[in-house]
Design brief:
The structure holds two protein chains of two kinds. Chain A is α+β, with helices and mostly antiparallel strands. Chain A contains three helices and six strands; from the N terminus they run H-H-E-E-H-E-E-E-E. Chain A is 24% helix and 41% strand. By secondary structure, chain B is of the alpha+beta class. Helices cover 28% and strands 25% of the residues of chain B. Classes of the chains: A alpha+beta, B alpha+beta. At the A-B interface, helix 3 of A face strand 12, helix 7, helix 12 and helix 13 of B.
C-alpha cells in the first residue's frame, strides 16, 4: 500500500472526481456504450442487498460481469424492454468523495450517490453509498469494481430501468 | 362487514359467467376492504418457508393480508404465527425482519411474551387487580399449518385443514417443485422486494399467464443461449398446458420434460451447465449426483399459483402482499440447496438475479405492465377486462378445466374462487 501522505492528494482527488462525474454524466445521458468502455474486462458491477459482503454467495440486486453488463446495456438499447422504452429520466449527484487507499495501480474510492428518477410524471429518489476500485491505465482510469449499496437495499424497492 | 350493499351485491357483474372482469375490481377501495375480510382473513395465507427460521427461537416478520405477523419456532420446534401487536397499547413487539430471540418484549411498557405468544410478565402488575389473567392476554395467534416447508396461517378457526385447501394435485406439484433441492433440503437464499402501484389481483393473474411471456420477456430471451431459448419457447412449441387445480389454484406446465426432475437424468447435460457440472465433480460428487444437482439448478418446468398470495415459479417463490387497492408488495424468494455444493447455489443465485428483482431482466418489465394495467383502468371504466382466452378448446383436467398453454384458465380458476369466497357471509 502506498502511503497516503506521499501522494499529491488534492491533485488525485481532483482527477478521481472528474472521472466519477464523467461516469455520472454518461449514465444520466444513457450513453451506455461509452459506459461499457470505462470497464476493465474482468470488472464487476455489483448492487448488493443488506450488509453482507460475500457478494458471490448472496442474492444481490445485480452482480454483473462483462457479459451481463453488455447484455444489460443491450436490453436497455434494443427498444423492446417495456420498462426501458421509454426509460425513467435520471439526474444524479456524486458527492462526499473520499479516497480510501491506494494499492499498486488500484485506487479505492467511496462516495455518496443521490439519484432522482422521473417517469409517468412521478419522481422518486434513491440514495446510496458507492464504492469504486479504479485502475489506472494508459488512457486514464478504468472501473474495476463498482459496488453501490442503496439505503434500504433489502427493503421495499421499485423496478429500475437505469444504472446507479 | 357485509356484502349487503347494493354496490357489491351483484358478484356476477364483477366477474361474469363469460369470464369478464369489471374495472372496479382493480379500483374500488370498498371492494378491497371486503376482500381483506372475506378472503385474506378467511383462507390459508402463505407466511414463510421453514428454512427462513430454521432454529429454535428463530423468527421472521410477515403479513396475513394487511396484518403484520411474526412467524416463529418455539423451543420445542413448534411453529407459531401471531399478530405483531402488544395486547396492552398495540405497539409492535418486533421490528427486526428476521432473527433469533428468546422472547418478544414491547418497547413501550415492557410487556414480555414467550416464543409461543403467551404473556409472560408485565412490569408493576398490581394496578390491574387480582383477577387479571395473563393467559387471556397473549399475542393474538393464528391457526398455522405447513406443507413440505411452506408455512400458511389463517385467522379462520373454521377453515378446512391446509392439505384439503391445497388439494391432492397442488400437493403433488409442490412435492415435484421441491425436487429442485437436488436431493438436499430446499433453502431460502435471499429475496428481492419491490412495490408496484397495482391491485393485488393484477399480480394474482400473472404467474400462470404464459401469453405475456414472449412479449414482455423478449429482452430477457435475447440474453439466453440457443438451448435455453429453445427451453423457454414453450408458447410456440405448445406442448404444455394450463390447468385449474381447484380452490383458485392453477398450474402452468411450460416444460413438461421438466415436470419431474428425477426423470431424464440420463439426458446430456445442457451446454450452459457444463462448466457447473465440472465444478461440482471437482467438489467430489459422483456422476449420478452431479446430474441430479445440475438438473435441479435449472428449476422445475412449471409455475404453480396458489390462491390468494403465493406462487411457485420455475425456481423461486413469488409472494404478494396487498397494501391498498392500488398498491401491492412483491417478494421474489430465491431458493437453493441446504448443504449442497457452493457452485450449484451460486449458479442458482446468478440465475435468480438475471431475471428477478428491481434490476433483473424480467421483473422490471413485469412490474411495468402491471402498473400499465392499473393506469389503463383509469380510462373506459365501462369496458370489461377479458380473461376468456382459451375457453373455446378447454378440456376436463384432473380437478378442473385444462387449457392451451396460453389460455387464461388459471385466472378463471382464481376468479371463481374469489367469487365463491366473496359470496360467503
Amino acid at each position: 500500500m502506498t502511503e497516503m501522505s506521499k501522494i499529491e492528494t488534492p491533485a488525485l482527488l481532483h482527477e478521481v472526481t472528474e472521472f466519477l462525474w464523467t461516469e455520472a454524466d454518461i449514465l444520466d445521458g444513457k450513453r451506455y456504450d461509452e459506459w461499457l468502455d470505462l470497464w476493465t474486462e474482468d470488472g464487476l458491477y455489483i448492487m448488493p442487498m443488506g450488509d453482507g459482503e460475500d457478494y458471490a454467495n448472496q442474492v444481490n440486486l445485480c452482480y454483473d460481469n462483462a457479459k451481463m453488463r453488455r447484455d444489460r446495456v443491450g436490453r436497455f438499447q434494443a427498444g423492446f424492454s417495456i420498462s426501458s422504452a421509454p426509460p425513467a429520466l435520471t439526474v444524479r449527484t456524486i458527492s462526499r468523495i473520499v479516497i480510501d487507499r491506494i494499492e499498486g495501480d488500484e485506487i479505492h474510492v467511496r462516495a455518496a450517490e443521490h439519484v432522482i428518477e422521473d417517469k409517468f410524471g412521478r419522481q422518486r429518489q434513491w440514495a446510496g453509498n458507492a464504492f469504486y476500485t479504479l485502475r489506472r491505465g494508459e488512457r486514464g482510469f478504468k472501473l474495476h469494481r463498482k459496488i453501490v449499496k442503496l439505503l434500504n437495499s433489502d427493503g421495499m424497492l421499485n423496478s429500475f430501468s437505469y444504472l446507479f | 362487514m357485509s356484502l349487503d350493499t347494493a354496490k357489491f351485491s351483484d358478484l356476477d357483474a364483477l366477474y361474469s359467467t363469460d369470464a369478464k372482469v369489471a374495472t372496479q375490481m382493480y379500483e374500488d377501495p370498498g371492494l378491497f376492504a371486503e376482500e381483506m375480510e372475506k378472503i385474506f382473513k378467511k383462507t390459508w395465507v402463505w407466511v414463510a418457508h421453514e428454512s427462513e427460521f430454521p432454529d429454535k427461537g428463530s423468527f421472521r416478520l410477515s403479513h396475513v393480508g394487511l396484518e403484520p405477523v411474526i412467524v416463529v419456532r418455539d423451543r420445542k420446534g413448534a411453529i407459531h404465527v401471531m399478530v405483531n401487536r402488544c395486547r396492552h397499547r398495540a405497539a409492535t413487539v418486533c421490528e427486526v425482519k428476521k432473527g433469533k430471540t428468546s422472547s418478544f418484549q414491547c418497547p413501550y411498557h415492557g410487556w414480555g411474551y414467550g416464543l409461543d405468544g403467551s404473556l409472560r410478565a408485565l412490569p408493576y402488575p398490581e394496578q390491574y387487580g387480582d383477577d387479571f389473567d395473563k393467559a387471556q392476554h397473549g399475542l393474538l395467534k393464528l391457526r398455522t399449518e405447513a406443507y413440505n416447508g411452506m408455512v400458511f396461517a389463517t385467522f379462520n378457526e373454521d377453515a378446512e385443514p391446509l392439505v384439503d385447501f391445497l388439494g391432492p394435485e397442488v400437493c403433488r406439484y409442490i412435492d415435484l417443485f421441491m425436487k429442485q433441492g437436488g436431493g438436499f433440503p430446499v433453502k431460502v437464499l435471499g429475496e428481492h422486494q419491490f412495490a408496484v402501484p397495482m391491485n393485488w389481483k393484477v399480480q394474482l393473474e400473472n404467474t400462470t399467464d404464459a401469453y405475456h411471456f414472449p412479449i414482455v420477456h423478449k429482452s430477457f430471451m435475447q440474453t439466453l443461449d440457443a438451448q435455453t431459448t429453445d427451453l423457454f419457447d414453450f408458447l410456440d412449441k405448445g406442448k404444455g398446458w394450463v390447468e385449474d387445480l381447484g380452490n383458485g389454484h392453477s398450474i402452468m406446465m411450460m416444460m413438461p420434460e421438466r415436470e419431474d426432475l428425477d426423470d431424464h437424468l440420463d439426458d446430456p447435460i445442457e451446454d450452459r451447465f457444463e462448466e457447473l457440472a465440472a465444478e461440482i465433480r471437482a467438489e467430489g460428487y459422483d456422476e449420478a449426483q452431479v446430474r441430479k444437482i445440475v438438473r435441479a439448478v435449472g428449476g422445475a418446468g412449471f409455475n404453480l399459483n396458489l390462491f390468494p398470495n403465493v406462487s411457485f415459479s420455475l425456481s423461486f417463490l413469488r409472494v404478494l402482499t396487498p397494501k391498498s387497492v392500488e398498491q401491492t408488495e412483491i417478494r421474489h424468494i430465491a431458493l437453493g440447496m441446504e448443504g449442497g455444493p457452493q457452485a450449484a447455489n451460486q449458479a442458482r443465485i446468478r440465475l435468480h438475479e438475471h431475471f428477478q428483482g428491481p434490476m433483473g431482466f424480467g421483473s422490471p418489465d413485469d412490474a411495468e405492465v402491471w402498473e400499465r394495467v392499473q393506469r389503463g383502468t383509469k380510462g373506459g371504466e365501462e369496458l370489461p377486462i377479458l380473461v376468456n382466452r382459451g375457453l373455446v378448446d378447454e378440456v376436463p383436467g384432473v380437478m378442473g378445466p385444462r387449457g392451451h398453454i396460453s389460455a387464461e384458465t388459471g385466472m378463471r380458476a382464481a376468479y371463481e374462487m374469489w367469487k365463491r369466497m366473496m359470496s360467503n357471509d
